[in-house]
Amino acid sequence: MSGCSVAAMLCVVGAPARADDPKPAAELPEVTVTAPSPIRARKPAVPRPNPGARVARSGTRAPAPAQQAQAAPPPPLQGVTPIITDQFATVTVVPNEELRRSGAATLGDLLNSKPGITGSSFAPGASSRPIIRGLDVNRVGIVENGIGGGGASDLGEDHFVPIDPLTSDQIEVVRGPAALRYGSTSIGGVVSAINNRIPQALPTCSTAPFQTYGLPASAPAAGSAPCVTAETRTSFSSVDRGVEGGVLLDAGGGNFALHADAYGRKTGDYSIPGYPYLFDQTRPVNGRQPNSAVQNEGASIGGSYFFSGGFIGAAITQTNALYHIPGIEGSDSRTRIDAHQTKFTAKGEYRPDSAAIDAIRFWAGATDYRHNEIGLADPADPTTDGIRQTFTNREQEIRVEMQMMPVNLRFATLTTAYGIQAGHQELNAPSPDNPGSVFNGLFGPNTNNRVAGYVFNELAFSPSTKAQIAGRVEHVSLNGSTPNFPVDYLPDGTPQANIARNPEYTPKSASVGLLQNLPGDLVASVTAQYVERAPKAAELFSRGGHDATATFDIGNPNLTIETAKTVEAGLRKATGPFRFEATAYYTQFSNFIYRRLTGVMCDDDFASCGTTGTELNQAVYSQRNALFRGFEFQSQYDVAQLGSGIWGIENQFDVVRATFPDGTNVPRIPPMRVGGGLFWRDANWLTRINLLHAFAQNDIAPIAETPTPGYNLLKAEVSYRTKLNPNMFGAREMLVGLVGNNLLNEKIRNSVSYTKDEVLLPGIGVRIFANLKF
């Protein structure tokens, strides 16, 4: 179970050698996270290279050849999820080797069992967006290599995230002050995908080290020969008769590095352990979730130029997806989404020879996204198959950060980083079903312009005591239109018209944190933050039916700024035979914006609401104060040496409660979960079995939400990794394995999904995977 893997990894890797051990235990590999803060620790000083010398990695210059000839670090053991102790709030890291073993097709499916994180699983294996501590869409940011992921996943739970774990090398989930770096729409946290599409290092063709957690290895010395490396990632799954594969190429020589990748995935309708429809027992089902097949593919090419003190690079990526939407309405109408995204990204870093400026970094991106929601206008007439809704998103973003040199204040060392961020977004969601009507589509054309400035200050009072103070101010200007509800027609009988809306907001945010090393290798953190969020376009301008989610959404152009005041305390230990992470948080929302289901049913215009025979749930964007509080825990314990490896236990627990002032529940909150398992691993093998129990969710909204039964999710896996002789096998490294999912074949429903009463998660299944490096 991926959610329990934190303890397991740290247990084995960080366990101290015992007197009777045949050999010392491996040391915990260094883990580098890039998403939480713009301030990066300085590396040991190295001589400045001659002009033309290359950068070793972002933030460090390539040392002289003699300094690079060092012994390779031991490879990280499999199954070890790092505990991050040098950040001011909880950070969950999914390293490269866990990504390869997981095989999840979406970020939501990948993170679904991590403490404090679930997935929306609207269409399992196709559209599942991460939900952090009960917060989703407009409160969870998703970035790829520091730039927004684009797409339209924050506009509807049925929309996919155009970032595929198959091509990612590391995933970071950041809570807390990260909102101040990425914007108020990251109030709940940030999910950051990292890959090598814009190379930050020249590839190395040495036969020595594994790359730790998917991060690039140091570049070879200037003047080295050109190098080309390749990697293949493939798997087969039984539950959906699925196959996926990817090829990644990296090449470098001189001052240039290039990257290219391509991937594809195809599945059929997945197997389920029972009848999916709770409130309609009349429909034929043949053991598979109807209308749940998936097909997607993508490709990218990018390159970087390295110069004295820095690098600059760019990439272009194409992502395509065609996936079906399960559920009664989706199955009857054969609803599927045909999505395409073209994205250009660039980033770079320069470390000047300056006494004041440590580094200047930038990220830039442009996205052109479009998807068509296709289905039958009349389920009884196959000739009515066609486009029912279109979503388009054209978005540009740039972010620049400048990190200053540390300053000695006598009582502390101060490191400051400044940042500016700007973006422009154009959205539209037309539909051919009501031409000329104000209800022609979910919302009309609208724009979102935003600009922000932020500052992070870190104070090192001593090697064991650090503090962080950060602030952000942004200005958001939106332009769109929506009619005045609740009427379709004016008093004189003429149809209601769209009214231009031009709201502007200036949200302000701040945070303060303390990080303290304690005896026994413990690290404690306390963070307080105040974050304001401007409403998004969908919350303001929605005014029509959304067939895939079966809702009739009504926006509110009078929404005000949402405010969250959070206190978070954590205690972590990342060394020794017992490692753990515990976090408690308390968030008070003022003017919390949420989609409130009214219990009224609608068709495709407002006049139809409340009439018989309608199928869309009326959902009105509303504001109320709300209170979120929760606790997360995960641990691992290395019990003893067994043969050539170590066996141990791991466990996890998470809970979140979210209520309004009158004691009623915030809609769609994940249930309390507890899990644990056993593992055994050595340098090559990993075996694990884990059980995650989700309790029944009865804390539900009073209208249009039903209780969800609990479940037990049993997973087991075995994998083997080894180096190979390239002369004999062609590949230099191999990772193969077998993973079993839902081995109890439980009927699992996700309480946070709008379609949970009509969609079961996949039943028992086995996945075989192989990863080869050349």
Automatic annotation (TrEMBL):
Q: Residues of the signal sequence? A: 1-19
- The TonB-dependent receptor-like beta-barrel domain extends over 303-742
Membrane topology per the entry is: Multi-pass membrane protein
Pfam families in alphabetical order: Plug (PF07715), TonB_dep_Rec_b-barrel (PF00593)
| Residue ranges, compositional bias (Low complexity) | 62-71
Q: Where in the cell is it found?
A: Cell outer membrane
Task: Could you list this entry's UniProt keywords, alphabetically sorted.
Answer: Cell outer membrane, Membrane, Receptor, Signal, TonB box, Transmembrane, Transmembrane beta strand, Transport
Q: Which InterPro entries match?
A: Beta-barrel_TonB, Beta-barrel_TonB_sf, Plug_dom, Plug_dom_sf, TonB-dep_rcpt-like
What is this protein called in UniProt?
TonB-dependent receptor
Q: What is the lineage of its organism?
A: Bacteria, Pseudomonadati, Pseudomonadota, Alphaproteobacteria, Hyphomicrobiales
